[in-house]
Structure to design on (258 residues):
């Protein structure tokens, strides 16, 4: 089942692909990648799927410690960047597959670990992707979900509105409880659940998606008003070194399929 926003996703991430490997971007910073790898408790025999992988930055960090990694993504431009980086790093146990997380092209119980990072907020509905990730995961295997956590309830709508202004492929950030409900519904024992605050430069955040200048200016004005005590945005922006920053809340949840 093709998601209704697939064209927005492919358009947005084709634009983002050229900047996705920038080490200044949080999702490419090695310290966060290393922490994720450590948290997954990998084995040399593991077959791993990174779903909605983008350039597979996390999968490339995982690859030296496992048997194989499959990177699945809907945007060919992102996969092309990832494959180029893997070759540059002489990683030979990776496969790059163009496909949808709603229709994962692998058999039931194929993988020991399924990982998805910063993807769920792009899904129009979350049940089908979660079901597909569960389907291709072995019983006793681990599902690792990392995504941005929603603002407090009264600010969720405005936060998502600003996110969508910047990136039309954004749908909505989900809460910790929404993710916990998914894991419980699908029969997982949650072994790790934590949130961390990631400092993000507003300027770099807008540049990544090549946000049109008029929209970028509108978002900046909203953030500046929030800093001055005006209407809250859900981002809780602040000034650092004369620049606007905000803290993204990244949630990591790891569950074992029972």
């Amino acid at each position: 089942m093709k998601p209704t926003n697939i064209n927005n996703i492919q358009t947005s991430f084709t634009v983002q692909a050229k900047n996705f490997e920038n080490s200044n971007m949080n999702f490419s910073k090695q310290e966060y990648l290393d922490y994720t790898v450590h948290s997954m408790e990998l084995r040399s025999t593991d077959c791993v799927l990174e779903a909605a992988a983008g350039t597979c930055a996390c999968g490339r960090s995982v690859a030296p410690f496992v048997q194989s990694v499959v990177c699945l993504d809907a945007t060919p431009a992102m996969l092309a960047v990832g494959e180029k980086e893997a070759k540059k790093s002489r990683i030979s146990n990776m496969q790059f597959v163009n496909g949808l997380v709603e229709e994962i092209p692998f058999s039931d119980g194929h993988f020991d670990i399924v990982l998805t990072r910063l993807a769920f907020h792009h899904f129009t509905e979350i049940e089908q992707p979660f079901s597909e990730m569960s389907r291709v995961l072995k019983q006793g295997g681990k599902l690792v979900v990392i995504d941005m956590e929603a603002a407090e309830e009264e600010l969720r709508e405005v936060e998502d509105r600003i996110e969508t202004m910047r990136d039309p492929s954004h749908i909505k950030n989900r809460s910790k409880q929404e993710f916990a409900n998914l894991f419980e519904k699908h029969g997982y024992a949650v072994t790790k659940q934590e949130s961390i605050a990631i400092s993000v430069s507003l300027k770099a955040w807008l540049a990544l998606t090549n946000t049109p200048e008029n929209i970028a200016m509108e978002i900046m004005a909203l953030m500046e008003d929030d800093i001055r005590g005006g209407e809250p945005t859900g981002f809780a922006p602040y000034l650092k070194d004369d620049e606007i920053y905000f803290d993204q809340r990244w949630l990591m949840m790891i569950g074992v399929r029972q």
Summary: The mean pLDDT is 93.
